Each structure stands twice: as structure tokens, then as C-alpha cells.
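Action item from last meeting closed. Structure (384 res):
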């Protein structure tokens, strides 16, 4: 059957990530559903909005039946911000971007040396206070490069300079770290399963580390990157003195460099295990059960490109669906993958908004109506 051939189907599952800058995952699903019903009025549509651990993860969990809880925490610049986590039973989904993300910085303002993850620690504490004993810590979209030091401080760790005073917030001041005491970490962490959910597997240090790869995205100059990498290296050495050689080897572990090194702090201080964010979220959202009786899955995100192939939501969705023998197609804002690359990822065909409106300045604000139009075309191709 060719990609343009039509087929009949009983039920479609929409499992798309957000279109960053224009539509949330929930909105994407709603617009796709409208277009599908225009193209194939009798089709039965369900949706499981998905996320890969980055911004939008809490929204996806809430759409999947979790309760949104909002608390006031410390933002990346030290100011109070409103942040949400999601809770269902004893399981919490905590999104570090809610507390320590770039969205909390004023436009054009960056603080690569001083931004803190303290608020993420406060968010984790709130989840523990609410009874969570299984926590998914989704990381991505961070404004920080502090190795998770702020998060650990908020949870009871003592990170002190040579005078016995707490080191100031941020990754830069870790150069002055003299001693670390993790004995005061919240004792509830010892009985809590923490999963570090990320779409990147970088180590903490070096040319593929947190500072070198992601620091420039957060406003770090070349000099800042060098200073941060050195400070984080010193941080690792001090934590290894306090917690043993496992703290040194953790710096090389996959995911240690995620979100400015908060992955490292989670691995060392929270006893977290690392998993690909989309795999964790598909489990949490009950994706396997949602696939029962489904004939076609529609996934997608704002840009289908090379990054998509490395742990992003559409590929995780496609792999899970194809393992069940279910066809997968995608919608996106822009498409930068060849048909062969899509096929290798398990996606039969992609429908980009750019095919209807190539100008992003027009496409982004009109993403909803455009998405309905491409979904109608998709329905006419695959569902009638």
C-alpha cells in the first residue's frame, strides 16, 4: 500500500507532543481531532497527550488523569514563582522547568553562572509532603547550570565554602565549594523511587557536558562555559569526598549533564535512576493500554528533525505502536527528515504545516487552523 493509498480504520489514537511556541499537546490533540472528523466523520478518536520530560510534562500528566498541584517556590533568579507538579495516588510528576526553567527569565535575560535549581528542590519537597513515594523528575528547558546543587540544598544538603558559609546560588560559585554534607537530605528520599526522565544522555563534564553543549543556549560565553565546567568538576571532587567514589563516576553516567547538570545532582543525592523521558511518560500515562483496539496512531511535535531521532516523543510513540503492529503517521510544524529517516523511526508519513504555510511568522500564530487542515488531509489519505 502506498503512503497516499486510503485505508479503513475503526479507532485513532492521537499521541502528540506540544508544538513549542504555539500549541500545547492537549491543544494539538484537539485540533487534530477536529480535522480528522472533517475528513472522516465516522472515525473514533481518543488522545493521550505526551511529553518527553521537558516543558509540558506536567500538562501531559494532568491530561492523563493526574491532579495539578500548584505551589510557590524559588525561581531561577531567586524570586518567588508559581510552579505546578502532578499527583496521582503515590506517584508525582515533577517538571524542573516549572520551577527553574527559562520561561521564568525576563526576555533577553540570562544568568548562566548564578541561576539556581533551588525551586526544583522545593517542588520535590512539596511532592514528598503530599505523600508521593514514586517521583518522575522530568528535566529540560532549564535556565540553570548548577549541577543540581540548588535542588540538593533545598532538600537539606549543606554546601559550604572555606569559611563554613553556604556557597551562593548557581554553577559559578561552586568553584568556592570546600565541603559538602549530604547527611541532612530529606530522609523520605531513601524510601522514594526517583526516576530521572530526560531526552538527553550527556555526561556532566567535558566537551559533551552540561556547560559545553547547553551553556551557550542559556547565555554562557566561551569564558563562562570554561568557568562552569571547571566549577562543576570541582563540585564533583568535593561530593566524591563526602559521598564516596560513586559520586565521581556518576558524572560520567548517561543523563548526568541533563538540564545544566541537575541530572548529576539527582543521581548522586536523590538516588535517581535514569530513563529516556518519553519511555517513562508512556508508562506513567498508560500508553500500552491506550493502544488496545487502535488501528492508527498520530504523533508529532513542532519540528520533526534530527533531534527527534534522539529520544524525542514522536519516535518513542512510534516505536511502542509499531511493536504492536499499529501504523503511525505524524503531524508537525516543519519537517526536516527524509522519508527514509521517518520510515526507520517507524513513521509512515508526516504532514507538516509548512506545506500549507511556509512562513513561520504566519504559521505559528495560525497553527491550530492549519493543523485541522493537515489532519483533514491525513484522514482522507488514511481513514476513508
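Sequence:
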Amino acid at each position: 500500500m502506498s503512503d497516499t493509498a486510503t485505508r479503513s480504520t475503526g479507532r485513532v489514537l492521537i499521541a502528540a507532543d506540544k508544538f513549542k511556541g504555539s500549541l500545547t499537546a492537549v491543544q494539538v490533540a484537539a485540533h487534530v481531532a477536529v480535522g480528522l472528523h472533517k475528513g472522516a466523520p465516522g472515525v473514533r478518536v481518543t488522545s493521550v497527550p505526551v511529553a518527553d520530560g521537558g516543558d509540558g510534562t506536567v500538562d501531559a500528566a494532568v491530561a492523563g488523569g493526574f491532579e495539578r498541584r500548584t505551589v510557590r517556590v524559588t525561581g531561577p533568579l531567586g524570586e518567588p514563582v508559581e510552579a505546578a507538579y502532578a499527583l496521582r495516588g503515590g506517584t508525582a510528576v515533577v517538571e524542573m522547568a516549572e520551577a527553574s526553567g527559562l520561561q521564568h527569565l525576563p526576555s533577553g535575560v540570562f544568568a548562566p553562572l548564578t541561576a539556581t535549581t533551588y525551586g526544583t528542590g522545593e517542588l520535590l519537597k512539596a511532592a514528598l509532603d503530599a505523600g508521593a513515594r514514586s517521583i518522575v523528575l522530568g528535566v529540560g528547558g532549564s535556565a540553570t547550570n548548577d549541577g543540581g546543587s540548588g535542588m540538593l540544598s533545598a532538600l537539606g544538603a549543606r554546601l559550604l565554602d572555606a569559611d563554613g558559609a553556604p556557597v551562593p546560588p548557581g554553577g559559578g560559585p561552586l568553584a568556592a565549594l570546600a565541603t559538602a554534607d549530604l547527611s541532612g537530605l530529606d530522609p523520605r528520599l531513601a524510601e522514594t523511587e526517583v526516576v530521572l526522565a530526560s531526552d538527553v544522555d550527556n555526561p556532566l563534564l567535558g566537551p559533551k557536558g552540561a556547560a559545553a553543549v547547553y551553556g551557550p543556549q542559556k547565555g554562557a560565553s566561551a569564558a563562562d562555559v570554561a568557568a562552569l565546567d571547571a566549577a562543576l568538576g570541582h563540585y564533583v571532587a568535593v561530593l566524591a569526598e563526602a559521598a564516596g567514589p560513586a559520586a565521581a563516576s556518576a558524572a560520567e553516567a548517561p543523563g548526568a549533564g541533563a538540564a545544566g547538570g541537575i541530572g548529576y545532582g539527582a543521581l548522586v543525592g536523590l538516588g535517581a535512576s535514569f530513563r529516556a523521558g518519553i519511555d517513562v511518560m508512556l508508562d506513567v500515562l498508560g500508553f500500552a493500554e491506550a493502544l488496545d483496539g487502535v488501528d492508527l496512531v498520530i504523533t508529532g511535535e513542532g519540528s520533526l528533525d534530527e533531534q527527534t531521532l534522539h529520544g524525542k516523543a514522536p519516535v518513542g510513540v512510534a516505536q511502542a505502536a509499531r511493536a504492536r503492529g499499529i501504523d503511525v503517521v505524524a503531524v508537525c510544524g516543519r519537517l526536516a527528515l527524509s522519508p527514509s529517516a521517518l520510515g526507520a523511526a517507524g513513521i509512515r508519513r508526516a504532514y507538516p504545516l509548512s506545506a500549507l504555510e511556509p512562513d513561520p511568522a504566519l504559521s505559528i500564530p495560525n497553527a491550530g487552523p492549519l493543523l485541522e487542515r493537515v489532519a483533514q488531509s491525513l484522514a482522507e489519505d488514511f481513514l476513508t
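Note appended to the action item: The domain at 11-50+291-382 is CATH 3.40.50.10350 (Rossmann fold).
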